[in-house]
């Protein structure tokens, strides 16, 4: 969503928002009335492109538990507050958490990943990613999901790495593959079923920061962009009645 504020979104599947255009975003809703044969009252529906005039926005992830369930032996998170670091380690089960706003990130990362990094899920780019890449192992992998630190800069997407970091990537044969969720539409349904099953079994935990009222949409978005939320940032338009 942040990249849609730029003249060039850096993607071929997202167009920039235009002045006076209603902003849209991902949301979850409940069917209140339906004449469609595949939808009945009470069904939950989702969309990437609901207008904010009538719907909700949410953002976040639960990578640690998914990584652990898929075989990762050690999972380390990077965030910007002590509260979030504590949440990652005490509630979500991360082995360690690095606070990039406090102390030396490279030293914290070496302490947290003494054997180096094998897989890096990159949502941020910039200096933090450069530091992580410098400590990645031979034949490791970067999953390039976002580059939030670079969206205010006039650079292509994905942004090029600094020469020294690019040299490390090439020397260690580190893959840096762009991940686009819309390329996996055929996996949405089985993915939702698997995540739901893990949640029902208590293997996944969900954390939400909820703000009520469509009129607070702007404040919620600003808070999310400045790190004010923990977990998914949700704007609740109305109470669900089933």
From TrEMBL:
GO terms for biological process: prostaglandin metabolic process. This is 15-oxoprostaglandin 13-reductase. Belongs to the NADP-dependent oxidoreductase L4BD family. InterPro entries: ADH_N_2, GroES-like_sf, MDR_fam, NAD(P)-bd_dom_sf. It catalyses: 13,14-dihydro-15-oxo-prostaglandin F1alpha + NADP(+) = 15-oxoprostaglandin F1alpha + NADPH + H(+); 13,14-dihydro-15-oxo-PGF2alpha + NADP(+) = 15-oxoprostaglandin F2alpha + NADPH + H(+); 13,14-dihydro-15-oxo-prostaglandin E1 + NADP(+) = 15-oxoprostaglandin E1 + NADPH + H(+). Residues 1-66 form the Oxidoreductase N-terminal domain. Its EC number is 1.3.1.48. Keywords: NADP, Oxidoreductase. The gene is LOC101581820. It is an enzyme of class 1 (oxidoreductase).
């Amino acid at each position: 969503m942040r990249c849609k504020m730029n003249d060039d979104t850096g993607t071929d599947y997202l167009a920039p928002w235009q002045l006076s255009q209603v902003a849209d975003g991902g949301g979850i809703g409940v069917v209140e009335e339906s004449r469609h044969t595949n939808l009945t009252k009470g069904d939950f529906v989702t969309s990437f492109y609901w207008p904010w005039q009538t719907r909700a926005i949410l953002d976040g992830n639960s990578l640690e538990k998914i990584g652990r369930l898929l075989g990762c032996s050690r999972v380390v998170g990077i965030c910007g507050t002590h509260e979030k670091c504590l949440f990652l380690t005490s509630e979500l089960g991360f082995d360690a958490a690095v606070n990039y706003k406090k102390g030396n990130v490279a030293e914290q990362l070496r302490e947290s990943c003494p054997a180096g990094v094998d897989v890096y899920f990159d949502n941020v780019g910039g200096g933090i990613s450069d530091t992580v890449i410098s400590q990645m192992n031979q034949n490791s992998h970067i999953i390039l999901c976002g580059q939030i630190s670079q969206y205010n800069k006039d650079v292509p997407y994905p942004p090029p790495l600094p020469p020294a970091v690019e040299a490390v990537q090439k020397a260690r044969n580190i893959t840096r593959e762009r991940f686009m969720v819309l390329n996996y539409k055929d996996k949405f349904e089985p993915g939702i079923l698997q995540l739901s099953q893990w949640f029902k079994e208590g293997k996944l935990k969900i954390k939400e920061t909820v703000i009520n009222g469509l009129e607070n949409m702007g404040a919620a978005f600003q808070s999310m962009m400045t790190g004010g939320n923990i977990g998914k940032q949700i704007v609740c338009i109305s109470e669900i009645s089933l």
